[in-house]
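From the shared-data thread, chain only:
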Amino acid sequence: MSATLSSAQNILNDSLAGDSRIIRKANWIKRTADYILDKRDNHSLTITDTTYMKRVPERLRLKTNINASGTFMIIRANRGDVSYETRLSAQNKYTLSLVACYRGIALGIALNPSHLIGNNKDYEFNINAYGNRIGGDISYQYANTYTGEAKRSEMTVDIPAGMVHQNMFIMNLYFVFNSRRFSYPAAFSQSWIQRKSAGSFMLGISYINGVIQSDKDDELGTTATHLHLRYGGIGAGYGYNLVLHNNWLIHLSSLPELLIHTHSRLFINNEEQKMPYRFPNIIVIGRIAVVHHFGKYFAGLSCIVNNMAIGDRDELHLLNTKWRGRLFFGVKI
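Structure, as tokens:
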């Protein structure tokens, strides 16, 4: 019995020692992070007009998000005297996410109920980093739930789910000129508070790389088609933060961009064709947000829309719209 108790005591001591090392390591990481973030915050005070915006004083924010996203496209083609038009939309995706943000560094986890019951095989991956001067977001989407219809002259054919597949990578970056008074993260990450209304001209850069694939179907009369897209765009726009009474914020911004790099190929029945191009091909990124702070709590909604118009209207033209919306509620601690 004595030996057993002694062994148990040794195990307990080792466990407590291990826990103590973990706690010391965690405290060291926190002190180091706070030191770096303190330097960042002190620097931001020298380049920020605090009468217009300020950093959220609470260090920890916990937030619950209800996210929704969707995609739809219109493809128009002309071959001789015959015109084609295809309209497709992917199944909308809905997720519930929990986010913890410590001094602007966030970590979150998302749950998609449709995936759990097997009703939606699409998936999407998003990363965003919003700063007052520079920032952006990256999105990757795989979708095979597109449904819609194809029109050829007077004939209309329904397109079932699973026939059209899409892999799409989209990166949008921005640069804000009036970053001393206009806070982009006040609208989209709530790490800053806009105190007075302000706006700014913005520069935008976008990169798109993806594949849209249609399977062959003899019954529907469709051919195997692969459209490989690779585009780069640059442009300028404007954003505005409108501050209302009782800590309400409304954000609106638009960034139209011209495509300056195009490298796209169209394969029909494995025969390569060059994607037609006619100036101008454009990308437009629109953003809207409404945020309300009340005491230690905040709530709101935001939406980002990517619109792409490429090709030649007289030969082959693609309109693609990708949107993401969010409802959120959080607490500042």
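The two ends are 50 Å apart (CA to CA).
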